Amino acid sequence: MAYSEENTRKIKEEYDGIDAIYNRLKFDIASFDSKLKNKKSHEYLLEGVSRRLGILARCIRNIFRIFPVEKKDLLSRDDLTDLAINLHAFVVNISGIIDNLGWVFVYENDLFGSPKEGKIDKNGVGLFNKKTQAHLGPDLNTYLKSDRMKTWYTEYSKNYRDALAHRIPLYVPPSALNKKEKEEYMLLEKQLWDYSSSETISQHDQIRKKQSQLGQPCRLIMHSFGEKSKFIFFHPQVIADFMTIEEIINKFCDNFAWEPRQ
């Protein structure tokens, strides 16, 4: 379950570059904001996109602090909960940035309103929403509709955000068990069921403690077993997501349509 030495080195190198990306994005967003005319566009860019970027950067730092890449001992229950909190905040704000950029575009181009008037209502706002994409420039549209971006958004970002918000929250298993450890875990589980109601609580607690000490730290996240969600290594994923958001913001700023469309 541990990363290879090469993967560990690469992940740590990319992690060390997160602050530089964040600082660069803050500067780019400030420059882009100076070109906006609409009051709501300013709000969604500075109070939406920019604020969420700060949350993402902080979440990454917290995730790597709670669960260092090279960690060998199991996390405590509290650390697992804190890890989940930061992963939840990260996934939600990735989705929020994408929607905020959609609002920037819609307000700046005077596109918000009734569909009967040829405009976009609140259900049609978002960079990956077809109603917003119908008004985007060709270069930005080509980028967002590429197989790579559609897969990232549909199979990962939207999938995990929707599960988190409406169905099963993201989950980091407390440990990863090899075959021998799994057999030992199940044997201990059987012992729990074999005890009669007259057995002491302390004996049950001792067995649970033995179970909690089995295995290695798990570096994977998922949401629902029933929905067959994919296991994802979260250390490289949060870094890749931050870089993807950087790319989306750069594409958005470089291909923004300044004049309202007729």
Brief sketch in words of this structure:
The chain has 262 residues and is mainly α.
List the helices and strands and how they pair.
Blueprint: H1 5-16, H2 18-33, H3 39-66, H4 77-108, H5 130-133, H6 138-144, H7 147-166, H8 179-194, H9 201-212, E1 220-221, E2 232-233, H10 234-254
Antiparallel strand pairs: 1-2
Protein model, in words:
The chain is mainly alpha-helical. It has one domain. It is 64% helix and 2% strand. The chain contains ten helices and two strands; from the N terminus they run H-H-H-H-H-H-H-H-H-E-E-H. It has a two-stranded antiparallel ribbon. Helix 3 runs antiparallel to helix 10. The longest helix is centred in the middle third of the chain and has 32 residues. The radius of gyration is 23 Å and the shape is elongated.
Can you give keywords for this protein?
262 residues
Q: Got a strand count?
A: 2
Question: How many structural domains are formed by the residues?
Answer: 1
What is the terminal-to-terminal distance?
55 Å
Major sheet: arrangement of strands? 1-2
Calculate the mean pLDDT score and round it.
89
Poorly predicted sequence stretches spanning 5 or more consecutive residues: 258-262
* Helix percentage range: 55-70%
Main sheet overview: 2 strands, antiparallel
